[in-house]
Design brief:
The complex is a heterodimer. By secondary structure, chain A is mainly α. Chain A is built from 23 helices and 7 strands. Chain B has a two-stranded antiparallel ribbon with strand order 1-2. By secondary structure, chain B is mainly alpha-helical. The chains are: A mainly alpha, B mainly alpha.
Chain lengths: ~550, ~350
């Protein structure tokens, strides 16, 4: 379905609210605001792999009246709800303490760009809270609607499916909430409940099942992965004259490197991938890639805690098999949320790994002593600080760069200054977007949490408005023509977003710029950059 | 509509208080109900907190609002991205005492024209009204609450007299006007009007959002009437309250007007209602996992009590079994050669 609504048409919305009570406004499914359901065979495969966590695989369509829910769906959801209240203090507390002050309301990119009041984080959470009150509190049972309670009806579940797949789990609302209520946490719970009755979306489940089987979301098999790397090495040799080493699945190295498979699969991520290869070759890092753990990202995070754990477990399993000392992770957003907030708890402690120490500078990464996994920009910033890299930033002089903080490194980790330090070392023209739209207040690309699919383009462009707007601001003010980011989903979602809201701005990974500025031993005079475009002054 | 329901409920409560006093049920309203309300409050509050605490915190999920602890030469944002217990306590203190997250608040504004899409923009203005009035409301309420302890203590501690002195600094009128009385009404009125007048906030508001505000306003107003207009015999009231707090309630005290019993009854309703309402954010804010945990997951191991050891990755062995031939053909290292694998298969 080609989606071709013009920006001026998309902007015909306001922040008005309906006259009716929100409980009486039904969910409206229209092209561009929902994602295709999971294919039965994919759901069945995952159900088998997880011993029954993805039941009721079936063909169903959100626009149909009948969603073919299992007979006892109410009991399933009720029990699932109770189970999660008992497992997560966050969920229980967040169900109880919201005062509906509305501080979060206009912090959501989907609300800012669409005006649907149910995209206010507070109301999105109320979709669940109203059921919580109706099913689990005395007041709700007695007073019903007077206590803000609802009965569990099919319409409620439909509403959940619509709106909990209109949340990218970016946590911007959580930053502004006086109690730190985290809509991401609530969305995760809601999606888990939906999985219990067989409601899910294919764009998340197919990558997740691919990742389980082939090691990466794209379903790239080992030999094909290796071929792609080979191809990149040839490109690098053409451009630089240097034959970089590319160790794969090799035992006995010091470091395992894992990056999202989006980097090997699609432009502009591929140039970032080449950047990693060149950097590691240049510093002589003793490391290996892995085809078995060829995915940093984890679509389990957008699915359920069990699947997240299962997919993430590969990282440590492979590190142990290959006998490395520690892991370096590439430029990926939600991968780092999983690594920073979940990995060690789910699949640790990783006793077979050591505290990372940079073999080039001797810097000890005590902040990663437990997980033994460091971010590539932490690693590279340290190299630069110690002057271990020969750099020629003028090769990036044709770029006027701004930087987009990805939600997860910003609000679930706090990785803000390292990438900026790296960028400022490799390019001379760097400009920040307005401060309300960057760092911890950064706006989502509107394709996070597994919603970066084409049939969802209207919501992506709506949700992309705040970021697109900030981008256009620096484009008009500073002639910015390049948006740097450290996230593979960003590299997939931001090109169409920029094209829509700020045409003329391109997207790059940080290590693509690093590699273009990197002066390598034995290189030929560089005439083109990694994209095979002539370098400034070389025309 | 939700606001009207709440207003109506509070009116009914006031009438109940009036009717009870008129019918001479002073023992019920002066002794039984207060004891009952306080009992409900403590039992309910503790039960709620225990209920929350019973659920574990499986993962450390602090919302990071600043630069993490990284290299020595990168400035660590200790308050918004705490790494240690001390820093986390400082973050929580700012959150609880200064409403730090609310201080960040921004308001979205659209401007430009929609005629030509690209000229339509959004901007973000600082928006500190809610933060300011919320602080005013909460702190006034706290001071008013603390001031009431002069009725339960004998002799009255010095700090209470000091507090009263500063609260009445303006020396307006007789009895001296307490500033916090005014601020409490002002703060609650702002919160109420904001809720009733802003369409988006009205849209999300439930009966349970208006009710506490009306109730607190009626408590404040009945208290103010008692002090400044109704002229209640304060010594008689103190006799009653001291009796309550020493668990030896006086049988019948003369000279306490109806307005006092209405005030007391509304307070009792507020206290009893507290544990079952959104007012529990008082307790919940301390237990919010996105604020009360340090961001030290990569440095230290944390345990999840219900972590399932049976959830395992799709194993490398299975992966290699599926793709071995292709791996060998591509020249990738394998754990088992083709022959060895064939032998295993045959066995």
């Amino acid at each position: 379905m080609a989606w071709n609504v013009k920006p001026e048409e998309l902007l015909q919305y306001d922040f008005k609210v309906p006259q009716k009570d929100w409980m009486d406004v039904p969910a409206e499914f229209r092209p561009g605001n929902w994602c295709y359901p999971g294919k039965p065979e994919i759901v069945e495969y995952l159900n088998k792999s997880t011993h029954g966590q993805f039941p009721y695989a079936r063909k169903w369509v959100p626009t149909d009246e009948d969603w073919k829910l299992p007979e006892n769906w109410r009991d399933i959801i009720r029990d699932g709800f109770r189970e999660r209240l008992d497992k997560y203090r966050s969920f229980k507390v967040f169900m109880d303490i919201c005062v509906r002050c509305g501080a979060c309301a206009d912090k959501c990119h989907f609300y800012i760009g669409g005006g649907d009041p149910k995209n206010m984080p507070v109301l999105r959470a109320e979709l669940l809270r109203s059921i919580y009150r109706g099913e689990f509190t005395l007041a709700g049972k007695i007073l019903g609607k007077l206590a803000g309670a609802r009965k569990l009806e099919e319409d409620v579940v439909k509403e959940w499916f619509l709106y909990f797949y209109q949340c990218t789990e970016c946590r911007r609302c959580s930053l502004f909430c006086p109690y730190g209520i985290d809509t991401a946490e609530i969305t995760m719970m809601a999606r888990e409940l939906l999985h219990l009755v067989g409601l899910n979306i294919n764009w998340i489940l197919e990558p997740a099942s691919n990742s389980n089987r082939t090691g990466n979301h794209m379903g790239i098999q080992p030999h094909a992965y290796y071929d792609m790397m080979d191809f990149m090495c040839e490109d690098i040799e053409d451009i630089t004259g240097v034959k970089v080493n590319c160790p794969v699945n090799e035992k006995g190295h010091e470091v395992l490197f894992i990056t999202p498979s989006g980097d090997i699969f699609a432009d502009p991520g591929t140039y970032t991938y080449m950047g990693y290869l060149m950097l590691f070759h240049e510093i002589g890092l003793d490391y290996t890639w892995s085809t078995y753990a060829s995915e940093g990202g984890n679509f389990g995070l957008f699915t359920s805690d069990g699947l997240m754990k299962k997919l993430n477990a590969k990282m440590y399993a492979e590190a142990q098999r290959l006998g490395v000392k520690y892991i370096i992770g590439g430029e990926c957003g939600h991968m780092w949320r999983v690594v920073n907030q979940y990995m060690d708890t789910m699949n640790g402690p990783a006793d077979f790994l050591e505290t990372p120490v940079s073999p080039i500078t001797g810097t000890r990464f005590d902040n990663a002593a437990g997980t033994s996994m460091i971010h590539i920009t932490e690693f590279t910033a340290d190299l630069m600080k110690h002057n271990k890299l020969k750099l020629d930033p003028s090769r990036n002089d044709h770029l006027r760069v701004t930087y987009h903080d990805s939600c997860n490194p910003a609000r679930a980790m706090g990785l803000l200054d390292e990438p900026r330090y790296v960028i400022q070392n490799v390019c001379n023209n760097f400009y920040e977007m307005p401060e309300e739209t960057i760092r911890e207040k950064t706006f989502c690309c509107a394709g996070g949490s597994g919603l970066n699919t084409d049939e969802y383009m209207e919501m992506r462009m709506r949700g992309g408005l705040p970021r697109g707007n900030a981008l256009r601001y620096v484009q008009e003010k500073h002639d910015v023509n390049m948006l740097a980011t450290i996230c593979a989903i960003d590299r997939a979602t931001l090109p169409p977003l920029a094209n829509y809201w700020a045409p003329g701005v391109d997207v790059t990974g940080v290590h693509e710029m690093v590699a273009n500025a990197l002066v390598m031993d034995g290189e030929i005079p560089r005439e083109v950059n990694l994209r095979q475009e002539p370098l400034p002054g070389a025309e | 509509m939700n606001a009207l329901y709440s207003l109506f409920a509070v009116f009914v409560l006031i009438l109940v208080g009036m009717g009870g006093t008129a019918a001479g049920m002073t023992h019920l309203f002066g002794v039984v109900i207060p004891y009952l309300a306080i009992a409900i409050f403590f039992v309910g509050f503790v039960a709620k907190v225990i209920g929350w605490a019973k659920s574990p915190v499986p993962f450390r999920i602090p919302t990071t609002g600043g630069q993490m602890k990284s290299h020595d030469w990168i400035r660590h944002s200790k308050l918004d991205n705490p790494q240690t217990t001390g820093q986390t306590i400082a973050r929580m203190a700012l959150e609880i005492l200064c409403f730090r997250s609310l201080f960040r608040n921004l308001a979205v504004q659209r401007f430009g024209s929609t005629e030509d899409g690209v000229d339509m923009k959004v901007r973000y203005a600082s928006s500190k009204w809610l933060w300011g009035f919320a602080l005013l409301f909460h702190y006034s309420f706290l001071i008013v609450f603390v001031r009431h302890f002069r009725l339960f203590t004998d002799p009255v501690p010095g700090f209470l007299s000091g507090l009263e002195f500063f609260d009445g600094l303006l020396q307006l009128g007789v009895p001296t006007l307490y500033l916090t009385d005014v601020f409490l009404v002002l703060g609650a009125t702002f919160l109420l009007l904001r809720r009733a007048l802003l369409p988006q906030v009205r849209y999300i508001s439930l009966v349970a959002d208006y009710f506490p505000l009306f109730l607190i306003l009626s408590v404040a107003c009945s208290g103010i009437m008692m002090r400044y207009f109704g002229k209640t015999d304060i010594m008689a009231v103190k006799e009653l309250t001291m009796g309550l707090f020493s668990f030896a309630p006086a049988a019948h005290i003369e000279g306490i007007g109806a307005i006092f019993y209405i005030h007391l009854f509304l307070v009792c309703v507020l206290i009893a209602y507290f544990p079952f309402s959104k007012l529990m954010h008082l307790g919940g804010v301390f237990l919010s996992p996105t604020r009360n945990l340090p961001n030290d997951n990569r440095a230290k191991h944390h345990r999840n009590p219900w972590n399932d050891p049976n959830v395992k990755a799709h194993s490398y062995a299975d992966y290699e079994d599926e793709f071995r031939e292709k791996m060998v053909e591509a020249g990738l290292p394998v754990e088992k050669g083709l022959d060895e694998a064939a032998q295993t298969e045959a066995q």
